[in-house]
Structures are given as structure tokens and as C-alpha cells.
Amino acid sequence: MVHAPGASAWEESKQEAVEREREPRKKWSDIMTRVVSRALTRRRFLEDSCAAAVLLGGAAAGVSEAAARAGRATDAPADDWGPFVGRWKRYAGNPILREPGACPGPGSVIRDHGKWWMFIYNNNGHNTRLAVSEDGYDWRYVHDRPILTAEHRWEGSYALTKAAWVIDGVVHLYYMGKQGIEERIGIATNSDSDLFNAQWVKHPDNPLFSRQDLTAPVQRVFPSSVVEDGGAYYLFLDSGYDYRHPVFPRQYTINVASSPDGVRFKELAADLVVPGPDGTWESQAVCQSAVRKVGDWWYMIYSGFPKGASKSAQAFGLARARRSEGPWQKYPDNPIFTATGNDEDWDGGFVQHACPVKIDGKWHLYYAGNQRGVYRTGVAVRE
């Protein structure tokens, strides 16, 4: 560093600190420029090089009072519930990922360079792993190590990816960190368009979304899924309270934020989907929304569970809307997918983290099943 004659040691130290502060952003900018350039080059030669992210799933459970007061109405026919109702047949080869603790996120499966990629929400290590498949059934881990781990104070010991989306050839991972009882949202991107060899770089301004970005006085927020529509990006997220909250223990609702670039999000609408009345299957919480737009409809597959059951009765419900901000309507015959209830089954206890993906013309529902406290990943196919 060159400085003017007579500059004080304090001024030198201050300037060095400024340069150090700039370094992470310069690194992020350099990496993003390099990745975009490589992706655009490969796209000229490979038909599939630009990832077509297929994220999905749902979150839904009721029209918010605010939306109702605003007078927004849905004029859809009562029987137009899309491709997610009906029988889901469990794959005979389940679980497709047998390692204990492995879960898909609600929006964590993407298509890139002719392969399917799943970003694994690892409950045991509180980190993110990466798996790849040619056909959507036979999956293998890309590495024997996590691709994303906790490093910063706001992350605590958590770096769990729940959603992914490809923007200008760059994969964006939306993950949660947890410090104390507060959960916040960060973004990481790939350093190389070759996902087998990519390093994952966290945004220098993380966390990019937290409870302070919502109007409700909640204690935690975490991502569920991201959808691009009309050049805007929509982040569906859960918000709620700690398990020991004196008034709203373990209560969660589903919200949506919007962004012009997939990085800087602002709250768009709160309480899109809320818990049901006492005595219903979803009276305690609704969360883990996987959202997919099909035609003119937005569909959500979400997790819900009743009061007094902890997580042991979680199942999947369905909702729909004409717009991302709602109003959202719940399917009258919810839940649409439940645990088997059999003690000998890997998914006999409860199910979580629905992630619907369309493969070869058929909808596949990736999900986490739990039996006796052990999570594994499986898939069901819409018949």
C-alpha cells in the first residue's frame, strides 16, 4: 500500500481495514463474472447447459385475513386442482438415499447439463451435501464431504440448503443459518459451471433476509422454495416462533418475498397459508412450502401438523392461487400424502420436505420420511 508522507499509523491502519472490507466483495464479483462467462460459453455448445431449475412444491393452508380484506378473489373452477391430486405411488426402491439424516429441501432439485442434482439438507451434520442422478431414481453423492458448512457467527452450526435456482447460468443456493433461536437466510453460488468440481461461495452481505425484514414480530425465518416468473423472483419462506415461546410455541405460517435479481428480497405478503382450526391435521403449524407454477396457477405442497403431536403427525397438504401473493385456497380433501403408519417402514412415522419435480412427463414427489427419529429420502410418482 502506498500512502502520503507523514500519514499517521492510525490512517494507515484504517485504509488497510477498508481494503480488507472490499476484498470479499471483489472476490464475489470476480467469481460471478467468471461463472456467468463460462456458462454462457457452454450454452452455445450444449443444449442443456443452462440449468432449468425445477423446484417446487407447496406451502398452503388458508387465506390470510389481510388478503380477504383486500378483496382479492379467485375465479377458478372448483375442480381445477392441477397435477398434484390423486394417487402417489411410492417407488419400490425407496429410500433412494439411505444415509440417515438425508432430506431434500422443498425446492432443492434442479436440472443442469443433462443431469438431476439434489442439494441435501443433512439433519445429522447440519450441513448441505450434493447428489446427482441420470434418471431421478438412482442417486449418488458427488463428494464424501459437505459442500456447505457453517462458518460465520450468524450461522451458528447450521448451513442447510432448502432451495436452489439457476440465474444466468449460476446456481443460487438459499440456505438457513441458526444462532440461538434465530434462523436467517443466506445465499451461496457455484464458483465453476461444472458442479462436480465447483466450490460454493457465500454472498459477502449474508444474511440477506431475516426476521427484521418481515412486519410480523416473529423469532425465525427460513427458506422453502424460489420461483421465477415474468423476470421477478419469489422466495417462499416460513416464519414463526421458537418451541418454547410462551404464546405461540412451534407455530409457523408461510410468506412470500419478491426480488428483481434473486438476491435482494423484500416482503410481498404475509400469512399466505396459516394453521387450520383446532382438531384438524394442521392445527399447529404449516411450513416447508414447495411452490410450482403450472399454467396460470400457482400450486403449493406444504407440511402441516396438529397441536400436541410435535412432528410425529406431519403430512402434506395442497393449495393454489392465481398470484404468488394469493389469496391461497386449500384443497378440500387435504392431506394429499401421509406417512404409511407402519412400524417397519422407513417412512412410517411422518413425512417432511415435499419437493415435486416433473421428469419425463410425470410428476415425482421427493420427500423425507422419518421412522423412530431417523430421516431418509424417497420418491413417489403421480399415477
Q: Determine the structural class based on helices, strands and strand pairing.
A: mainly beta
- Biggest β-sheet description: 4 strands, antiparallel
Number of DSSP helices? 2
| Average residue pLDDT | 83
Low-confidence residue ranges: 1-21, 35-78
Strand order of the largest sheet: 1-20-19-18
Helix-strand pattern: HHEEEEEEEEEEEEEEEEEEEE
User: CATH fold name, please?
Assistant: Tachylectin-2, Chain A
Shape: globular
Describe the structure.
The protein has 383 residues and is mainly beta. The chain has one domain (9-382): Tachylectin-2, Chain A (5 Propeller), CATH 2.115.10. Helix content is 11%, strand content 40%. It has helices spanning 9-45, 65-70, and strands at 88-90, 102-112, 115-122, 127-133, 139-141, 160-167, 170-179, 182-190, 200-202, 220-229, 232-240, 252-259, 266-273, 285-294, 297-305, 315-321, 329-330, 350-359, 362-371, 374-382. The strands form five sheets. Strands 1-20-19-18 form a four-stranded antiparallel sheet, with no helix packed on it. It has a four-stranded antiparallel sheet with strand order 2-3-4-5, with no helix packed on it. Strands 6-7-8-9 form a four-stranded antiparallel sheet.
